[in-house]
Amino acid sequence: xxxxxxxxxxxxxxxxxxxxxxxxxxxxxxxxxxxxxxxLVPGAILFVAPFAWLVSASFQHMGDxxxxxxxxxxKNPTLDGYRGFFGIGEAGExxxxxxxxxxxxxxxxxxxxxxxxxxxxxxxxxxYTFAKRRFPGRDAIFLLFLATMMxxxxxxxxxxYLVLKHVPFFGGNDALGNGGHGWLDSYWGLILPGAxxxxxxxxxxxxxxxxxxxxxxxARIDGAGEFRVFWRVVLPLCTPALAATAIFTFTYAWxxxxxxxxxxxxxxxxxxxxxxxxxxxxxxxxxxxxMAGSVVAxxxxxxxxxxxxxxxxxxxxxSGLKG
Length: 323
Fold this sequence. Notes:
The chain is mainly alpha-helical. The chain has two domains: about 25-80, no CATH class; about 100-320, MetI-like (MetI-like fold), CATH 1.10.3720.10. Helices cover about 65% and strands about 0% of the residues. The protein has helices spanning about 5-10, 20-60, 60-65, 80-85, 100-130, 140-145, 155-165, 185-190, 200-210, 215-220, 225-235, 240-255, 260-265, 270-280, 285-305, 310-320. Helix 5 (about 100-130) packs across helix 9 (about 200-210), helix 12 (about 240-255) crosses helix 16 (about 310-320) and helix 14 (about 270-280) packs antiparallel against helix 15. The longest helix has about 40 residues, at about 20-60. The radius of gyration is 29 Å and the shape is flat. The protein starts with a helix and ends in a 5-residue tail after the last helix.
């Protein structure tokens, strides 16, 4: 038998036995995962429990809401809280102030959607300019935009109020912006101050920096104008970042309470947070109605996050790849 034949017929060597050193990383990983779950699971329960009790209480009768121990699953579920909040049927006959609930949510949906659309368009335009266009002072202007993020929004409440009050030719104002109320107590005053966001510009700009310049140059060589390059090439590639910006903007606009409280004085223009706050004042003891209204006010944000969850996480994780 030749050496080559002996080599072919030799049985394969068995793998070396696992040593304590090779098993150590596996045990470390298991201990690390167990530690993470031991911390995250109680934390998740702690954060979800109040909302779960809120949903459960919205389907309970008034006398069962504050029973002890708490009823996480209603024994006798009812829709009286929702009917009373929206003024439907006999349950809503004694709920003062609930006749405008539908209008509150429609106003919030209109304002939040308008602010989101405007921010996506203008923030994307500004982000494209800062990311892909070259002009003198570009970086300095961008730093000024970032510096505005350090200014608390409460500081700008009075200046914004005065600017809206003296807008010319609106709300009875003359050419100099005097004589009327301008954009106060109007949808203009709720929407336009939030049409641009420095944070949204920053988020989209960081994402656009990761787009290769060769794609844009190829579109320009084919004869595309600058706006067409932005609309047809850049925006489709920024879908994850746009989704993340949309969720942030919609959530902030929907939850905003202080600015509508200052600007709006007519009840037909109340947003959902403002209407719910005034509803609490009028119905201090109608806890089932308050629970139902709070659940309805929270649902749009949860639905928006669940629909765009994958895009949201993708946009957040990829926005800082390239600075």
